[in-house]
Amino acid sequence: MAARRGRPASIDPGAVVATAVALFCDQGYAATTMEQVATAAGISRKSLFTYFPSKSDLIWDRLAPYVEDLRNDLSRQDGPEGLDAAVHAIVEGISRWPEQRDVFRLHTRLVLTEPALVDLVEVRSRPWRSQLADYLSTSLGAGSALPEAMAYGCWRATLRGLQRWLDTDDDAPTSHVSAELRSLLVAAARLEACDYVQA
Questions:
Q1: pLDDT digits over 144-157, tens only?
Q2: N or C: which end of the chain has fewer CB within 10 A?
Q3: pLDDT tens, 178-193?
Q4: What is the distance between the alpha carbons of residues 136 and 147, in angstroms, rounded to a whole number?
Q5: DSSP letter, residue 173
């Protein structure tokens, strides 16, 4: 039988990310090298770069599964449509994040406070917002910029909820994200009721 090619089966990408996040928090993101991450994770530099081509990939690599989860949750919606369904899907997804809450808290703190990462949050989160905007566009039948604006609002509310969670000892961010998104729903309903919006 021919030897299998590709990534070594013994490397756990999640464990590598957890190690990197701990180093970034301890030493600072900018001051930590990929060499240090590889050494701390007990893998070769080459193996590290096979999984994570750049240092920022150690932070953003896990966003893709969140986008896929959002896509799946939105496709399973069988109740209300539109913004209500989008908010429900976001909260459902957040309730499953993550398996390692302590790592997720450190990861979230890094992304929302480390200057080199804060500058990338909006760009790196674009696939998540695009998925939400596509759903809202189909659900609402809107061809305007409204779905994108709503998706952006949901994203900002989610970030605010995560930030509020960081200021607590709560195990999960779900209630904080949910509260921010509910506030967004209330504001959207008020806006829709305004005379100038109906005109």
A1: 678 888 999 999 99
A2: N
A3: 999 999 988 888 776 6
A4: 5
A5: S
